[in-house]
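User: Hi! I'm working on a homework problem where we have to compare a predicted structure to a textbook description. Could you give me the structure for the chain below?
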Amino acid sequence: MPDAMISVAEARARILAAVKSLPAETVSVAEAVGRVTAIDIVARRTQPPVAVSAMDGWACRSADVAAVPAKLVEIGYVPAGASFDGTVGPGQAVRIFTGAPVPAGADCIVIQEDVDAAGKNLTVREGAKAGTYVRPAGLDFKAGEVGVPAGRRLTPADIGLVAAMNWPWLEVHRRPRIAMIATGDELARPGEPIGPNQIVSSNALALAALIREAGGIPIDLGIARDEEASLSAMADGARGADMLVTLGGASVGEHDLVRKVLGQRGLALDFWRIAMRPGKPLMFGRIDNAALLGLPGNPVSSLVCATLFLVPALRALQGERAESRPPLTAKLGRDLAENDGREDYLRSTLSFEADGTPVATPFDKQDSSMLSRLARADCLVVRAPRAPAAKAGSRVAIVPLGSAGAFLG
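Assistant: Happy to help. Predicted structure tokens:
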């Protein structure tokens, strides 16, 4: 029922069940970092294609250098990018450089630091077993192997791998287009004249940054005034978007118009209240074949809710595989009182003990009006409804923010 207050986990599950991955498009591998693969990327070649030397030295037979010092004769020279067409026989060696194919007959490389060379006559001072400093064919990957699976967000290392596998173009999911409407007569854009009863609108800019960071394309439709015609006109601009996100106007009150106006335009409401803090008034549904996410107008509540609900939805729209892993935890840095009936997300800093154990310390004041605290936070400490008092040093679940997520892995 839309009016029932639901848990964070149920809200996230409903949102993810309602969004489907977007179609694929073809992009250059040079432009694919951060995009999500739509198909398995299969190696089109074997790397290395033949056995190659891992060091500069001489290719020879291990049997000839089993006892040292050993005397060999150089019969050829092969730099990287070339090959030696003959065969290495008993007592023979070929000068070779890193990456060059190992000649037929040779089964090891003696490195140049272990060889005294007098013209073509070589004295090997340190022997080598078969396979020493030889990279066998297919050591990195073999033709037909899956190098990068479908549903993976491509990293710089992935780009190098798919390029090595000879993929100049890639099939990736289209980036989701996210339309945004902020609501409220009290809002003014940064730099605009600010009336005596107005505040600077920070939500849309922060949310646009979060959307870009998560791989989406933000479409800022502007600020709708507290009148039905203004909001309805702005909603027209969301046609063709994959999701509409509203900021404010989702709670109960005579000036909260989002549900009323969008309801007149065919909004199918799923839920609009979550048992969490900050961010109780959060609305989700569908309108004009697009998902609708109504975030709270409070900047802190808005960004916390966007982190918990919008970012996972963006990943799902891009076809990113949902990884099943236990929640991240940290030691609690200060005592906490028992919690009430709502799931709490406490803005916290992270520090690390000498052994690398993370310690999450919630700010003493968690007022949702304090955006500066969110900007300074490294993570959110999660407290279950009715959680008992917790002592410093106990383990708590955390949601990393910003660069802390990459660091904690």
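For your comparison, note the following. The helical segments are 8-18, 156-164, 203-213, 228-236, 258-264, 299-317, 371-376, 403-408. Residues 299-317 form the longest helix (19 residues). Good luck with the assignment!
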